[in-house]
User: Fold these one by one.
Assistant:
Number 1:
Amino acid sequence: MVKKNKVIALKDIPGFVREGDRLWTGGWTVVRKPMAMVWELIRSGKKKLHLVANPGGPEFDLMAGCDCISKTETNYIGHEVFGHPYNWRRKLDEPDGEEFYHDDWTVKTGALRIVAGSMGIPFIPSKSLLGSDIINPEYDGFKELRGKDKKVPRRKVKLMDDPFWDGDTVVLLPALNPDVCLIHAQKVGEDGTVLITGGTFLDYYAALASEVTIVSAEKIVSREEIEKTAEMNKIPGMVVDAILEVPYGAHPTALHNYYDNDPWWFRDYLEASKDVQKMREWSKKWVHGPKDYREYLELLGKKRLKKLCADGQKGYNPEMKRRLDRLEEVPSE
Amino acid sequence: MKKQIVELGYSNLEMMAVAASRILENDDTVLVGTGLPLVSAILAKKTHAKEMTILMEAVAFDCDPDALPFCVADPRAVYKTVWRPTAMEVMGQFLQRGKVDVGFLGGAQVDRYGNLNSTCIGDYNRPKRRMEGSGGANDIASLAGKTVITIAHERKRFVEEVDYITSPGWRCRTPDGTGLVHRRELGLNGGPYAVVSTMGVLKFDRTSGEIYLHSYYEDLGITREQVCEATGFALDTSKASPVGPPFKEELEALRTVVDPEGIFMKY
């Protein structure tokens, strides 16, 4: 069954997510992350979320800093060359007594797990991880949860000799089926068909593997218009449950052909996230302060958003200076 | 092309980027991680290996960027590509299918067998310093034809035993987590080929799988003794030879084309 009217508002997002849910956030580290939807989830006071995107970016660290999560299961969490994920790192380096678990994976094994989830199969073999501590039973970050938490596989991996050919031992990986998948895209058709440029990453598989998939986009377009870009469309509307229009919905991450990373955001956020108290003040101003996302964008200012504007041919802003220690002043009105 | 010896000053980091780029060849298909590996691979592409195929795990396939990508998913990495696949195709298919000649990785600690740690410092279960996570490093070190590692040469980084084996070297972790075993016994092909540091280039003995000093940056005042002092285990330097400074075109490409802002090079 395919629901016909899929349009929702940003304030409806928290209604789709329950405590303990495995949440996939689309995009890749500092690129095309569903930041507006994550922002709304944080504002709603969600707790104990279990993040499973491969890999995670500022959305993971922000949710860690705002105490929304209790589990992470991925290959990477960070802001790339901008700086370190201080909030998330603190959870592991300086445990505060709150329940927190992290399980390490890799790009390929994370990809295979979500592909298996999208295929409806329970596990998939892989040729990497052997010889590493990633499968060392001593270092299984979820070992206390295995067999108890239904959203965690009973074991991390299982080694198996090739049963068909004269192949070597393979590592069986559990499929990943997130409860909720949030994706931000350039365009979405009113039927839910998703147009993505500059890299789909694993979002097609995640949309199919997840129980519920929600797509925000810079623009909602008609069925007629989305048909014209059939070759560029990446996810069929059949696996998209709800859609919403949120301009700058991936800010401060980059959106190919629309806007570049916001270096001022990363500079200020990184400074604040080094310290618990400063992080509280930061989120008070930037997450809880604005009445809605439109007001958040107003707080950033038109001039600053204009500076991020991508070159339509190159997909990024070639004029953008990116060294945080040499940034010019924040563009103000 | 006539190669001119540079007369300008240059840093150890720049020499490291140049030395790493020289390992790459025109016919190579190279899978690169963010940071110095990316700088070196693009430098090779802009100088001696113009036809080399650069892959990045997130999306970029055979790319020739105009501007240095911030990460492997950056729109800068996507610009000037011939195909835009996903990590499923790049890692789950091309890499796993054996189509990648060279894997190019950075890390925080390396040991004598080329085991690489890019996960955490200290005990994994109670880390002193947790790092971002290793991305596709383990997959690349397990499945590429050979692996090149770039790492700053310090005693705390060249260690007797890494705190955590993220990426398997020649003698790596047994499946039960208790000892070390040769990677071939686990069915792993490939293996570490070179470690390029801020002091020189190290390679591995084919039979023992142990690291040795292959060359050192004499022009920067580096000696064999200094390399040993900066290494946390006994190092064979008997086969080492000095390398000269970068060529002018290498340094110019690095400073004006590859990383003009000094994002990674920190000029």
Number 2:
Amino acid sequence: MEFFNSSIFMLDSSIRLTVPLLLACLAGLYSERAGIFDIGLEGKMLAGAFAAATVAALSGSALYGLMAGIGVSIIMSLIHGVASITFRGNQIISGVAINFLAAGLTTLLGQTWFRQGGRTPQLSGDARFTGIELPYAAELADVPIIGGIYSELLSGHNILVYVAFAAVPITYYVLFHTRFGLRLRASGENPKAVDTAGVNVNFMRFKAVIITGVLCGIAGAYLSTAQSAGFGNNMTAGKGFIALAALIFAKWMPIRALFATLLFGFLDALQIRLQGVELPMIGEVPVQLIQALPYVLTVILLAGFIGKAVGPKAGGIPYVKER
Amino acid sequence: MTENSPNIQQRPKTAAVGDVAIELVGINKHFGPVHANKDIDLKIRRGTVHGIVGENGAGKTTLMSILYGFYTADSGQILVDGKPVKINDSSHALELGIGMVHQHFMLVDNFTVLENVILGAEDSPLLKTSLAKARSVLAQLATDYELEVDPDALIEDLSVGGQQRVEILKALYRGAQTLILDEPTGVLTPSEADHLFKVLETLRAQGKTIILITHKLREIMAITDDVSVMRQGAMVKTLITKNTDPAELAELMVGRRVLLRVEKGEANPGDVLLSVRDLEVKDDMGVLRVKGVDIDVRAGEIVGIAGVAGNGQSDLLEAVTGMRQASAGKIQIKGKDLRFSGDAGGALVRKLGLAHVPEDRQEAGLVIEFEQWENAILGYQDDDKYGQGVFLSIAAARAEANEHIKKYDIRPANNRLKTANFSGGNQQKIVLAREMSSNPDVLVIGQPTRGVDIGAIEFIHNQIIAMRDAGKAVLLVSVELDEIRSLSDRILVMFDGHIVGEADPATATESELGLLMAGIEDQSATKPENNKERTK
């Protein structure tokens, strides 16, 4: 029972750590499926997190914070879109620029406005997303096994967690069962085919990039107003890049993206759990080594395990109609 | 056209065969400094097959892309059923009943046939109903026009002919009354091409209008009712097909008289200079592509390898020319074994006296961003005459380049021009000039005239014959059966990695070769005595 409880606890924290990765991964999926590489997931999340924490702190409403986070993230997306779709700039460079812009601006504005070393004020009460008790969670809590799974693992998360996991089947459905999804995927595979079929490729790609902005904004808001109680300097800490790795690992498929990010989320939870723990035979492992675990695994997985991951064929190439 | 029915859907019922379906008036189009279409006037009659011929770069595709809304004209007018229309994008053209089958298919490779067909023509936000409808429409079209394809197959799994049928189905599904086909037979086998023509005839019989862009005069004569000739962006003339002949059309296309047949004398074969025994070659994926092939090429003869693209010819060429390691077997150039490690093969075959004109000049023959003089010595840059040690004698290289330009009539005659800015035919001449000037004993040529104009084809063919007459051994691979037949002294047919037959170009008919190329054994072709393995 002790093992079961600690397992449930581990999985519970895995889920919470998976959420930003999953949202960012799906965000990247929309963009890249439409043929726009997005290395700027990190920057968009960071900007979204800052905007969400700032507005939540000032308004006292987590919802307003979320909206601000989404709004700012969409603006960043549109900058990427204008640079790489309209002006056919290099998508990688534009994405890197977004990351720098976000890292610099959030620190600068945070320090200028709040003078707390780049941090935003501590959020409390309605300014944060708090857990939602699913029906009968309290009543079922003492039932063995089921109680643990239902009341601990499934219940008690904030709304953004449920949004993130709901986004997986929704994305799957949108991508493979709707007109929008068909055109989006085709734009990333063979934009000329889309164009000759009478559909505006660049408009299609802009729509995809905006969805990317929305999802990154939610991911950012989750980090600063749900998982933490405020924005901290560079709080995304490479999650955007891990999401990108998960996207490749998942071969640009939404269901696989769920499992890929769950794996990374689990590793992150494990990393936290292992800190300061004496392992049999080995003893206490230095904390830096454990913290590096998810990143090391990212490299190993990408280098060796997934085989050849072939992305959308037209990815990274601006669509030029006139020769 | 007297009735200007505003309703497109009713048009087929009210219009009669022979009326002008589409009229272009004074179309002009520039791409930068290039005047691609000059004041083009054209009338297309309904229910006919209208051919448009011209050399590469004559402006055929540009003109049709304007009609299809892919480009917009700088000036001029388009009339559909006598009504002036503005076609700003492809969806507008589709609404007007104009569909196009592009030379490079506009299909998404990892989508199914159904998904490709409905792309851009979905009825509702959800795909389910559109897919179901497309499935039944496709079944109907398949029976009406002999356009069978498996609706659930992925495009990448279909043959080229199958992919082309999907393109036609796409246009018909969108209700196309006028179908533009851009060089449709360039990628097809003879039998696939025959099937296509049957489909086109059925379409015409059902009242559809077909515009056929091609540079193959045989196809024009075989299927079109009218034919328009374009040259250097201008419309030269429109003729009734049955009142003209290939010679007249060729002259109109090129602007001078062209010999359509290759003039060559008897071959005088000498010693075997290139010998291939039991050769096996695997491709990048590790799939066996050449499955035990024996070939001998003698001095003073041209051996042509015919076959549908993808039956191992490319891999054979790569092995013989040192671009790829053979997995088994022996290659001898002038009696010396070709053995190399890594990527040293290209330099080694040159040293042994073999020159190579690759199948894909832009991928393997040229550095497209280089100036012409740089490409003129590429692969031979270490020769002593271009300088010592690490130094390159630019003067010597440029002199060589000018030599090539003069001898091979490369235009424009400017060795400082970037190679990408030469036309396809002139790029090919740059490669040919370089390889032939190296005075090799063995010349291996893949697709000598792919994407090359009729005028340049004549020149290139004559150069190849001249090499033969100078006592070189020439191995030729081409998917153009006509080319193989007119140049070769012996024809070997390759199918599924094997040489399945040898034929005498003087006596073998196209249908005999076609059967061999399709892997069907034919009695009339003689069996090469040195080939142990044969497939059915």
